[in-house]
Each structure stands twice: as C-alpha cells, then as structure tokens.
Amino acid sequence: MKGTKFQLKVWKYLKKIPKGKVKTYKQVAIAINKPKSARAVANACAKNPYAPKIPCHRVIKSDGELGGYSGPGGSITKKKLLKKEGFWS
C-alpha cells in the first residue's frame, strides 16, 4: 500500500471495522491515538485508493450523515454498500 504514514495508520484501522458496523471519523481518530484529527481521518478516507477493499464506507460523520466516499459512484455507492452489509435500511 502506498500513502503517508498517517493514511496507512487510518487505512489499517479501517480494515478492523466489521461488516454491518460503522465508526465516526472522530471514533477512528481516537482509536488511532490522534483524538483531534477527525478531519484528517476524513481526508485519509477521501484519499483511499483501495476502496472498498479498505472499507472507508464504514466511516460516517458524527451527526449520522454518510459523509463522502472515495470509490466509484461516491456517496450513492457508500449508501448501497452499507445497505448490502445490513447497516443502512
């Protein structure tokens, strides 16, 4: 995988989020010991060239909104992936 040290740390963590579950950008930031870096986590997700293999679609905004998606089809695909995994109804 190619990315910055921070991106790789985020992407490695994303692979631990199980199907059908989501985390917020802030929860991911806390989990990687960078509690004030929720925006940077969102940017790392946006730069993820390995979607959906690295499941950045499982990361949402703190207000429950989807947020963006770096894979083909953008947030429409993100919603479809989450529905398929049983999270989004």
Structure description:
- With 89 residues, the protein is mostly helical.
- It has a single domain (5-84), classed as Arc Repressor Mutant, subunit A (Orthogonal Bundle).
- It contains four helices and two strands, in the order H-E-H-H-E-H.
- A two-stranded parallel ribbon has the order 1-2.
- Helix 2 packs across helix 3.
- The longest helix has 11 residues, at 74-84.
- The chain is globular.
List keywords for this structure.
mainly alpha, two-stranded parallel ribbon, globular, 2 strands, Arc Repressor Mutant, subunit A, 89 residues, 4 helices
Question: What is the gist of this entry?
Answer:
The protein has about 90 residues and is mainly alpha-helical. It contains 4 helices and 2 strands.
Architecture blueprint of SSEs:
Elements: H1 5-14, E1 23-24, H2 25-31, H3 38-46, E2 59-60, H4 74-84
Parallel strand pairs: 1-2
CATH class: Mainly Alpha
Give the beta-strand count.
2
Q: Give the overall form.
A: globular
Mind summarizing the main beta sheet? 2 strands, parallel
Please give the alpha-carbon distance between the first and last residues.
33 Å
Mean pLDDT: 94
Rounded to an integer, what's the Rg over CA atoms? 12 Å
Q: Judging by the overall fold, what is the CATH architecture?
A: Orthogonal Bundle
The main sheet orders its strands as: 1-2
- Unreliable stretches (pLDDT < 50, length at least 5) are none
CATH structural fold name: Arc Repressor Mutant, subunit A
The run of helices and strands is HEHHEH
Number of domains: 1
The proportion of residues forming helix, as a percent range, comes to 40-55%
CATH superfamily: Winged helix-like DNA-binding domain superfamily/Winged helix DNA-binding domain
- Derived from helix and strand composition plus strand pairing, the structural class reads mainly alpha
Number of helices: 4
